[in-house]
Structure formats: structure tokens, C-alpha cells
Amino acid sequence: MDQLLFHPRIVHLPLALAALMPFIVGGIALAYMRGWLDRRTWVIVVLLQSVMFGSALLAMNTGEADEERVEEIVAERHIDAHEEAAELFTWTSAVVLALTMMPLFLGEGDLRNAIMIFSIVASAVTLAFGLRAGEAGGRLVYRYGAANAHLDQDGEPQNRIHAVEEYEDDADTDE
């Protein structure tokens, strides 16, 4: 697989899910507590949280793979700020995943409802950490020029995706 620019391709999934999860968790929790949805519906929350954690973990690992190349252009302290924010986001999403799994194993009652409500708050906190990681990543790219680490001497992207090259070749022959 072409790993060039894989990190920026993957980071958007956990951030998008982080933005949606407080609403999804809140909506499903409310609907369950009002009796509108069955207990099994909570599995949707657990599955989406699992995807968020898995994609955040993948994004964190692809970022680490990119780090050596970007360090040639961007000061290490800026990279470290993004890395620490990403780690906090990733591990918080793991904790929230464990939290959201708990209602599946609890019987009806106040404890289950309290954990569902706390899951809403925890998913909002995870969103805040995700926004912090995304902002630090955006600063790397747009303020400090991290994307330039992937350009060759002519300013062209290195190891570009073949489909893009074929499209551009076709466009050049049409003129």
C-alpha cells in the first residue's frame, strides 16, 4: 500500500466520529431510557466507538511513521505537541469504549442509566481532545509546512497515487 500521505487520509475518520458521538450516544441513551428503543440498540454506540478508537489508533501509528520525514522541516516541539494531543485523544477514546461497553453487561436500573449519561459527557470530552489534536495537526501542515516534507525538489508530491497521474496524463492529451 502506498503509505505516502496515509496519515492525513485516515485522521478525518476518528475526528468525524468524535464530532458525531455525543449526539449519537445522547440520542440512543434518551431513546432507550424513554422505552423507544430496545436494549440491544446500545450495540450501535459500542460499534461506532470501536471504529473511532481503531481509526484513532491507526492514525496515531501512521503519524509516527511520518514523523521522521516531517522532523526535517518542522521543529520537534511542534510535532510533540500534536503527538501528545493525539495520544490523549486515542487513549481517551479507548476509555470511553470500555465505558460504553458496560451497559451491555448491566441489568436494568439506575447504574446502567448513569453510565449511559456519563458516556455522553465522556464522548464530549473525547471530542474536545480530538479537536485539540486536529488543531495541532493543522498547525503542523498550514503554519509550519509539514506537507513540504512530501514534495520533491520540483515541488511535486513524491510517490503520487497512480490514478491521479493517469487522470492528469489523460487531461493533458485532451488539450
How would you portray this structure in words?
The longest helix has 34 residues, at 110-143. The protein is mainly alpha-helical and 175 residues long. The protein is built from 6 helices and no strands. The chain has one domain. The mean pLDDT is 83. The radius of gyration is 20 Å and the shape is elongated. Helix 2 (12-33) packs antiparallel against helix 3 (42-70), helix 3 packs antiparallel against helix 4 (76-105) and helix 4 runs antiparallel to helix 5.
The proportion of residues forming helix, as a percent range, comes to over 70%
- Mean pLDDT comes to 83
Query: Which oligomeric form is depicted?
Result: single chain
Content-based structural category: mainly alpha
| Alpha carbon gap, first and last residue | 32 Å
Enumerate the spans where pLDDT stays under 50 for 5 or more consecutive residues. none
The number of distinct β-strands equals 0
Our Rg estimate from Cα atoms comes to 20 Å
What tags apply to this protein structure?
175 residues; 6 helices; elongated
Layout of secondary structure:
Layout: H1 6-10, H2 12-33, H3 42-70, H4 76-105, H5 110-143, H6 162-174
Helix pairs in contact: 2-3, 2-5, 3-4, 4-5
How would you briefly describe this protein structure?
The chain is built from six helices and no strands. The chain has 175 residues and is mostly helical.
